[in-house]
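Exercise: predict the fold of this chain.
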Amino acid sequence: QVQLVESGGGLVQLGGSLRLSCAASGRTFSSWAMGWFRQAPGKERQFVAAISWTGGYTDYADSVKGRFTIARDRAKNMVYLQMNSLKPEDTAVYYCAGTSPGSWYRTPKKESEYAYWGQGTQVTVSS
C-alpha cells in the first residue's frame, strides 16, 4: 500500500523559510516523479513544483520560481520542498504527490497525472 506523509508545515512570518518533507513508502518510489501542490481556502489546488524520477529535472510554478526548491533523496524515500522568502499568498495546505511518469525525465504538472497523494500540511505566512 502506498503512503505519502507530509511534515514541516507551520506558521511563519513574511520573508521567512520552511522546509516541507514528504516520506514515501509502499511501492517503487525511486521510479516515481514527485510533485508538490497547494490549496488555499476557497481556491482550487494548484501545481507548485515537480521533480523527475532521477531528480535531474525540476519544474516550478511561476509564482514560486527563485524562492522554492524541490529535491529528493531516493535512498531515504524522501522529497523536500525548501520554501524561502515566504509571502502571505503562499498560505495554503501543501500536498505531496507521486506517480509513475512513463519517462525518466518527466515532471508532471497536472493533478490528474498523479496517482498518489498525501494528506497535506498547513503552511501559514503572516504579514
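Check your answer against the key: The mean pLDDT is 94.
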